[in-house]
């Protein structure tokens, strides 16, 4: 056994070249994949910006939808999206954070809570059309809201709710146990501990996750189509039970018109949508970095 | 309040050796699920004593001290029987709210755990949760508590700065100050110096010597020299049982049980 060395360093050294070669090839494949994605993205962005940028004028923001492309604007869609989000954000935040607090801080770890937890996680993966159908049945028909802001807002809130819950739960779970013990040790009640220790610590995480979820509600089209949100609206809503249209609906409408001018308008709408989404994501990243230091 | 009631009853003719107990544990058993972690504990803890709890790792010291202020309630699946009386009141009874118990009995943990707030806010926390809003009272209490924890001189110029900027030893004294703000009767300490360097440890030990004038202190320690230095009474725990409970002097110089002797002379643990 002593003399029969199984491995010979000569042999191994001889193989280094081959290994390095493989290393290079693999690196090249990954680089190509990255380059491909980046190029596609650049082409897409270039097309959208070159098409849409010339249409971004003050009038574009000031005008309603129109059959004449030179008079068409995005006012109703921008204002409509703002109205809708004013339903989505409080609804999803209150329900989402409330559920997360309950599941993390109050619920006993039983088979039932595990089952609820599993369903919440699964709901996050359900296609948005399905939420549209749910909204159509419940909010539009059963509650009789019709195809209004409130119906669309609740539908979108349900769509993003699982993500808000899961993100909030993760943020709450990350609160160090020692801090909760310190609070309880001073005679604080559960609610005082949640309010004064858990939430202040968890809120940056909750906000980051929730903003990313809300940005999804701004970009989604399918649920709005199913709920029956109109695409051609030439007035501003004056209440939550009014009809409205939203950014992605307006873009969808313009892209489905035959005239090329409308396609350019759609590109201009996409620029605005992208700008809003990038802004929201940056805010989320900023909050995360700002509070990560702790 | 219980404290004043007790003091007013104290008559001069009362004999010094008449023992006034802050805690009286009778036949306490505790299980984590099926694991029998505390076995038939009987322990009377005297007022204004420093009582040390020593024993090898895993023998139930933390479990016991966490039961005294019912922090153990936070662990799911714990069962107990027997009683613990705090000043003659059963701590497990429905009438004795755990919030009250934990207000009268402060706790200092193994790792310093200040809140991610300013030094000032760390101490004001306890007052605020008890509904004290008066700025003047809070300011005075913050200073008094920091002085009480021998920290005032080191931090008086920066009490509005984050507590995380303090050294580990200072953070631990801040946690002690945070307890003092509520004028507790008893302070429980679970290995309060195990995360500290020797100099900080010494400071905390000196502080404990000062605090015993006013508070009853129960301290878990892994460090036998520490128990010998600072405590009046010592309880030796082993495998969830109290092997021996006596004056610290007796435990360290002439223990009755051979297992105590083995432990303090370093033959195991
Ligand atoms: N949360 C818990 N769940 C189950 N068992 C536990 C838990 N905490 C402690 N134990 C067990 O109880 C025994 C006593 O633990 P502990 O009181 O922490 O010991 P010590 O503080 O003396 O080191 C150990 O055997 C430990 O494994
Ligand atoms: Mg311990």
Task: Describe the 3D structure.
The complex is a heterodimer of chains A (294) and B (269). Chain A is mainly alpha-helical and 294 residues long. In chain A, 75% of the residues lie in helices and 0% in strands. In chain A, helix 2 crosses helix 12 (260-292), helix 4 (75-106) runs parallel beside helix 7 (149-173) and helix 4 (75-106) crosses helix 11. The longest helix of chain A is centred in the first third of the chain and has 37 residues, at 16-52. With 269 residues, chain B is an alpha/beta fold. Chain B is globular. The longest helix of chain B has 14 residues, at 135-148. Chain B has a 6-stranded mixed sheet, with helices on both faces. In chain B, strands 2-1-4-5 form a 4-stranded antiparallel sheet, with helices on one face. The structure holds adenosine-5'-diphosphate (ADP) and magnesium ion. Magnesium ion (MG) binds next to helix 2 of chain B.
Label this structure with key terms.
A: MetI-like fold; 2 domains; B: 269 residues; alpha/beta; Rossmann fold; 6-stranded mixed beta sheet; 10 strands; disordered N terminus; binds adenosine-5'-diphosphate; binds magnesium ion
Uncertain regions spanning at least 5 consecutive residues of chain B: 1-16
| Strand percentage of chain A | under 5%
**Proportion in β-strands of chain B:** 15-25%
Strand order of the largest sheet of chain B: 6-7-8-3-9-10
Largest interface: A-B, 21 and 27 residues
Q: Report low-confidence residues of chain A grouped into runs of 5 or more.
A: none
What would the average pLDDT of chain B be, to the nearest integer? 92
- What is the total number of structural domains of chain A? 2
Q: Please provide the ordered H/E string of secondary-structure elements of chain A.
A: HHHHHHHHHHHH
Specify the overall morphology of chain B: globular
Individual helix count of chain B: 11
From the N-terminal CA to the C-terminal CA of chain B, the straight-line distance is 42 Å
Q: Would you tell me which CATH topology of chain B applies?
A: Rossmann fold
CATH fold topology of the largest domain in chain A: MetI-like fold
Instruction: Kindly state the number of beta strands of chain A.
Output: 0
CATH class of the largest domain in chain A: Mainly Alpha
GO molecular function (chain A): phosphate transmembrane transporter activity
Family (chain A): Belongs to the binding-protein-dependent transport system permease family. CysTW subfamily.
Subcellular location (chain A): Cell membrane
Organism (chain A): Domibacillus enclensis
């Amino acid at each position: 056994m002593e003399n029969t060395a199984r491995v010979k360093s000569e042999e191994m050294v001889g193989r280094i070249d081959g290994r390095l070669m493989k290393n290079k090839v693999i690196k090249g494949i990954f680089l190509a994949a990255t380059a491909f994605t980046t190029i596609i993205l650049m082409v897409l962005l270039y097309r959208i910006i070159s098409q849409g940028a010339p249409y971004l004028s003050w009038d574009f923001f000031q005008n309603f939808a129109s059959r004449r492309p030179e008079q068409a604007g995005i006012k109703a869609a921008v204002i409509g999206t703002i109205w809708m989000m004013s339903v989505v954000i409080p609804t999803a935040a209150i329900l989402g954070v409330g559920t997360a607090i309950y599941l993390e801080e109050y619920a006993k770890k039983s088979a039932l809570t595990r089952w609820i937890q599993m369903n919440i996680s699964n709901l996050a993966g359900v296609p948005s059309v399905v939420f549209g159908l749910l909204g159509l049945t419940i909010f539009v028909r059963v509650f009789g809201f019709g195809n209004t802001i409130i119906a669309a807002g609740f539908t979108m809130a349900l769509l993003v709710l699982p993500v808000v819950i899961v993100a909030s739960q993760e943020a709450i779970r990350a609160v160090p146990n020692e801090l909760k013990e310190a609070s309880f040790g001073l005679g604080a009640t559960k609610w005082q501990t949640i309010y004064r220790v858990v939430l202040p610590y968890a809120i940056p995480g909750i906000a980051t996750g929730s903003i990313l979820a809300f940005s999804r509600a701004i970009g989604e089209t399918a649920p709005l189509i199913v709920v029956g949100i109109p695409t051609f609206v030439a007035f501003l809503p004056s209440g939550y039970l009014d009809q409205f249209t939203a950014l992605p609906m307006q873009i969808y409408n313009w892209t489905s018109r035959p005239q090329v001018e409308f396609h350019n308008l759609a590109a201009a709408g996409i620029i605005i949508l992208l700008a809003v989404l990038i802004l929201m994501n940056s805010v989320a990243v900023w909050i995360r970095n700002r509070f990560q230091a702790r | 309040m219980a404290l004043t009631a007790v003091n007013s009853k104290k008559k001069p003719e009362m004999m010094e050796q008449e023992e006034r107990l802050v805690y009286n544990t009778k036949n306490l058993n505790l299980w984590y699920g099926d694991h029998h972690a505390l076995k038939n504990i009987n322990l009377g803890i005297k007022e204004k004593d420093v009582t040390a709890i020593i024993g090898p790792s895993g023998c139930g010291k933390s479990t016991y001290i966490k039961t005294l202020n019912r922090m153990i309630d936070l662990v799911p699946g714990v069962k107990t029987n027997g009683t613990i009386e705090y000043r003659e009141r059963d701590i497990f009874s429905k009438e004795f709210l755990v919030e009250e118990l934990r207000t009268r009995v402060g706790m200092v943990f193994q790792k310093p755990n200040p809140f991610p707030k300013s030094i000032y806010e760390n101490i004001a926390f306890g007052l605020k949760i008890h509904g004290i809003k008066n700025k003047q009272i809070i300011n005075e209490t913050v200073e008094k508590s920091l002085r009480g924890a021998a920290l005032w001189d080191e931090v008086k110029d920066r009490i509005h700065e984050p507590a995380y900027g303090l050294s580990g030893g200072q953070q631990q004294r801040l946690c002690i100050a945070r307890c003092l703000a509520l004028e507790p009767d008893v302070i429980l300490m679970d290995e309060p110096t195990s995360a500290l360097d020797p100099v900080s440890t010494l400071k905390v030990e000196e502080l404990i010597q000062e605090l015993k004038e006013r508070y009853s202190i129960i301290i878990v320690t892994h460090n036998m020299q520490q128990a010998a230095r600072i405590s009046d009474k010592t309880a030796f725990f082993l495998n969830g049982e109290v092997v021996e409970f006596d004056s610290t002097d007796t435990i360290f110089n002439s223990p009755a049980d051979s297992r105590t002797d083995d432990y303090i002379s370093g033959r195991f643990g």
